[in-house]
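I have a small job for you when you get a moment. Can you supply me with one protein entry, sequence and fold together? It will help me judge whether the discrete encoding reads sensibly. Write everything out right here, beneath this request:
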Amino acid sequence: MTRTTVPFVDLPALIRPSRAEYLAAFERVLDAGGFIGGPAVAEFEAAFAHHTGTPHAIAVKTGTDALMLALRALGVGRGDEVITAANSFFATAEAISHTGATPVLADVDDATLLIDPADAERRVTRRTRCIIPVHLFGQIADMPLIGALAAGHRLAVLEDSAQAHGATRIGHDGETLRAGSIAEVAAFSFYPTKNLGALGEGGAITTRDAAVAERVRGLRDHGQAGRHDHVDVGYNARLDALQCACLSISLARLDAGNAARRRLAAHYRAQLGDIPGVRLIAEPAGSAPVYHLMVIRVDAAVRDAIRDRLADAGIATAIHYPRPIHLQRAYAHLGQGPGGCPVAERAANEMISLPMYPDLTVAQVDQVVDAVAAALG
């Protein structure tokens, strides 16, 4: 068996620099005996709100919970439709379904693979209540166009920022847009491999709307407005104190980690762009992605063979995502079917996600690039 010399992601390397701080945080929480709620949760929420530039951040159990609770706080429910990108992780649509609403999958732009506002607008009906642009791979969607679409049809906007902690993009008016602070509400995931990862599951909702924040806080805690005062049918979606204590430590390193990802991505892009048969994801002018993933596109006919050759060379890769949501069996009843989102369908057969994490070395990037060139040669 070929030994992996360049892992897709190296979680122990991400943990190692802060290991002593994590252990000390565990001891503080253990000694205090407050495992649900308390200062560790409040401190992380305040720090994350500050980092995203929003007045409110509410920590929840998972990124999927963040999407679902945000939708419910926006009033989305049975009989509504919510438009989102066909090429996201399944959880984006799953959260819509759990509110009782129907997901409507829109196609994506061929250059950026972010939701295509024009295609999304073609799918608006009288039942459409919300649109969820997904900041895929760490790059912010075209939020000014999404905002204009939403305003024209009186739709709510929920940013799926699960892959975009710290990403920015210059808007059409020159304003710097920061993931999680652009729309009424945003959802984040802290899955361990994310740019800001927990030591387990985790998520958060950010918002500028105090009423939305209050509703989410109630929904995550069994719909309580106060102890044993249930004003809503909610969920047990609280994020525990241990995870929040560790996330506060990781948050202090997020900007440095994102800067490292950008440097590595620039090195990747400078070399991969010269390899015939490799297509890079476009970076719109003013975009500052945080490269949660480093994705290339190759001819669909050779994609799997290239991955096999990379594996033989000790390079671990992945596909994000191999099957668009509208082609998943769980959503066959939507009737969109093959050809419903042609760009997303074509890209799903062309993409390869290459190793990307802050502790990746330039020498390892060179090794990956050389292996890609050899595989295509």
Q: What stands out?
A: The chain has a mean pLDDT of 96. The longest helix spans residues 254-272.
